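W.,

You were right to be curious about this one. When I first looked at the sequence I had no strong expectations either way, so I just let the prediction run and decided to look at it fresh. Below is the sequence, 461 residues in total, followed by the output.
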Amino acid sequence: MKHDQPNAVQLRTIVKAWLSQNALRPAWLAQQSGVNPSVVSRFLNGVTQLDEISALRVYKCIKWRMSDAEQQDYLSAAGLLSLLQDAIEPIRINPSQAGQHVYFPFLKGMDYLRLAETSPQMKWTEAIELFAAAERAFGLGSSNGAYAACQGARRLSMLGRLDEADTELVRVGTTYEGIMDITTQAEYATARGYVSYDRGNLVDAHFWFSKVIDLAQAAGIPDLADESLNYMVMIPLDIIASPVPISKQVRATRLSEAEKWLQKFRQRILSEPILLATSWVWYHLYRAQLRHAQRRTDEATADLAIARRLMPDYGTGPGHCDIRAAEIMLDHGNTAIATRLMMPTLDAYESYSYASGIARVMRILAMAELMDGRAAQAFEFSLAALCVHPFGTYQDRTKLDSVFHAARASLQAELAPMGYRALIQTLRDKAVTRQSAFSPLTTILLPPNTSLDDAFKRAVD
């Protein structure tokens, strides 16, 4: 496939002139096109060029206010004319409309990709289908196809289907080896780290996120590592927050490591003023978690309040803030507030089939019940969490195991063996019929080869 040579200077001039003529700012262009704000900023300031996928996103955003000649100039300067005109047979959105609305597979892939990435109301199961459609449109010889597949794998992980996500990423690594550009290489490593983290494998997660940071530094594109910086803060905090005993020296080392990465994240935000407010949301959220681990509760509460105020009031984001707040409440023995915070979060997570998030909420509810002396309710919530998400991050799984075993020991001491077996059967019936704490199973698709028996086997062992 022959590609035109991009002319970065001409393309920059075209985009700057378009923004000036329409009295619009770079921040608007970043938000509307879905291109990372720092990528837009660095391009307009002459630091970097636009990669192929970013150039297409900008084009699809601004072409509606361009003449045919201006569109031709843009595509020529971006090096996209050959890709869109000569390379592939056009596809019609609606075959009945002959001669109208002709799309090329590349543009169709971009449409699928942008819709799956940017629609806040999109269910993750639907997004996975769109990412798969985008990969098919781009083709197996395209780095963009690998990018779309990586995004689909991450949604599989969010749904708790970690084995499927791992299988998909192995396929991507094998199929697209030597094809992925630097942006997609970073996305692939990020996805591998994301799935490892969701599985509770912090060693592998640290390896992959470190690899992303190294790629970003070598390429001179710092925004590739923004998400990885977040996880580098979270990994040491997860180790501290789990019930597994650690020495004072190890604790101090992990706190220092988290502080170091948090400051790097802050410097990154300050270096790119165009970054969206959501970057500050996560900064304050992670700082709240760090201050909580440092037993500086007032500062943690203040940071949570800032994060909650800045967080967009849709999607799964508000729940992340409320989970942190609930954990602080539990540490101070305020089970009522913790429970009250979790109920709307549970509803929101169910609407997305967010398996790991639902299990995290249930773990907090189980802890609240156990602290209030209601072992049976705590056991039910913890068992339901194991059914919903049989993996769990390192922190969530170790905490859940602690609650589960404490509740089970209390019930076994309180009930005769026959009574305990009767309780297990009652809970199994609830799980099968999706009642009470097991109701989220109506929205969760259990991973292949996983059954409710896996969780219940632990209850009787």
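Here's what jumped out at me. Residues 367 and 403 are 6 Å apart (CA to CA). And, maybe more interesting for your project: The longest strand covers residues 91-92.

Coffee later to discuss?

I.
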